[in-house]
Amino acid sequence: MTTSIKPSKKVIPIVSDHSSDKFMSMYEAQSKIYPRNISGIFKNWRWIMIWITQIVFYGTPWLMWNDRQAMLLDVSTHRFYIFGLVLYPQDLIYLVVILIISALALFLFTAVAGRLWCGFSCPQSVYTEIFLWMERKIEGDRAARMRLDSMKFSFKKLHKKFLKHAAWIGFSMVTGFTFLGYFSPIRDLLDNIIQYRLSPWETFWICFYGFATYGNAGFLREQVCKHMCPYARFQSAMFDNDTLIVTYDQERGEPRSGRSRNVDAKKEGLGDCIDCSFCVQVCPVGIDIRNGLQYECISCGLCVDACNSIMDKMQYPRGLIRFSTQNGVEKHWSQHQILKKILRPRVLIYSGLLILLSLGLVLSLTIRPAFKVDVNRDRGVMSRLAPGGMVENVYQIQLTNVTENQQTYRVSVHGLKGMTTTSDTEITVNPASERLVAISLQIADGSIRKGTHPIIFDVESVTSKEHVEQKSSFYMP
Ligand code: SF4
Ligand code: SF4
Hints:
Oligomer: single chain
Mean pLDDT: 88
Radius of gyration: 32 Å
Number of strands: 18
Largest sheet: 5 strands, antiparallel
Shape: elongated
Distance between the termini: 101 Å
Bound molecules: iron/sulfur cluster
C-alpha cells in the first residue's frame, strides 16, 4: 500500500500531534506509551548525560569542605554553603544573578540546538529513562510489556509488577533522601535513619520528594512534558530557521511505503521512508516526527537512531530523520553551512550577555568583603546623661564573619572631636557566624551643638586589615 503525503512548503512547522483532527476531549484517557529500546549514538549520549547528572546529584552532598558539608543549603540557619562560599540572606542578589545566568544559558542553548536540555539533562527525562531501564530489565521490551499489561491477573504478572514497583520505590526513596541531604547535613540524616531517629519533617520531605519522583517518572512521564512544563509552551518563541531541531526530510522520505530490500524505490517512485513506524515506537513522548516538529518533541534523537538503523538495513543513506535546521532542510545545506549559521546575532547577543554576567558574578564574589557590618542605634535609649557630665548614645553592631576562620575585629568611630567609647572595641566572631554587640559612645555635654551629628563606624579585621565603614549619627539632646 502506498501512502502519499504532499510535502508542505514550510518544512518544520511546530504543531500539536493531534494530526487526525478528530475531536479530543481534555478529559480523555491517554493511551499508555511503551517506548521501544534502541541503540545508537543519541541513546549513548543520553546515557552519558544520565551518568554525569546522577553522579553529580548523588555525589555532591557527600563532599566535604573545611570539616563541613561542601554543598549545604541550610534553611534553618539561613546560610548557603557552596564549597568555599558562604551566602547569607543579604546575598540574595547572587542567587538572583545565578538564576538569570541559568535562564540566559537556557535561551542560548535553545536558540542554538532546540530542546537539548529536555532530551538530555532535564530531571524529568533523565528519571523517566532510568525508570524505563528498570521496567525493561524486569518486564522486558515494548512487546513483552504490552503483552504483560494485557494479560489477565496471574502470579507471574503480580510478581513482575511487585518487583518493578519495589525497585521504583527504593530508587525514589534514595532520591528523596539525597534531595533532603542538600538542605540538612546528609551524614546526620543517614545516622538518624539507621537509628530510627528521623524527625517527622525529615520523614515527610524524604517521602514527598521520593513519591514525586515515583509518580512523575513512573506514571506521568511524557504528560509532565506535554501538559505541566511551561518551557514546552514558550520554546517555539526562541526557535528560528537556523535552530538545530530533529527533522524528517519529507522531500526524501515521501511517498512512504513498505517494501522489500530488493525493490528499486526510484523506479517505483517511492521515497526512502518504508513506513515501519520504528521512529514512533521508540519515541518517549509517543509522537510521529514525520508530521513535522511538534511542541511535544523533546529532541532526544532516539527517532534518529531508530531511522538510521532502518536506513542501514535498507542500504539507504542515513539521515532521513536527522538533527538539522529549517533552512538546512529547505535549502539542502551541508553540515558545514548549517554550523556556520550558529554564530548569528541572536546567539551572539545571548553569549555576550552570558559572558558579561558570569564575569560580573565572579568579580563581585572575588571582591566581596570577608565580613559585614550593620550599625543600628539602640531604639530604647536615644541619648542619656552619663556620670562625669557626659552624654551617651548606644548602638547595636551586628558583625557577620563570612569566612570559615575565627576573626577578630577592631571598632573605631570618627566624626566628632572628643568622642570616646566605653565598650570593648575588639570583638571576636566564630567562623561563618554573626555576633551582635552593644557599643556606647560618650562626649562631654555641651561640647557640640544640640541635634544630630553624622559619625562613621570603622571596623577593621585584625588579621586581614580589611576595613568596612558604616555611617550613623550621634544625638546631642
Ligand atoms: S520525535 Fe524523536 S526527538 Fe522528538 S521526542 Fe520523539 S524520539 Fe525524541
Ligand atoms: S523509522 Fe524511518 S523509515 Fe521507518 S517509519 Fe520512521 S522515518 Fe520511515
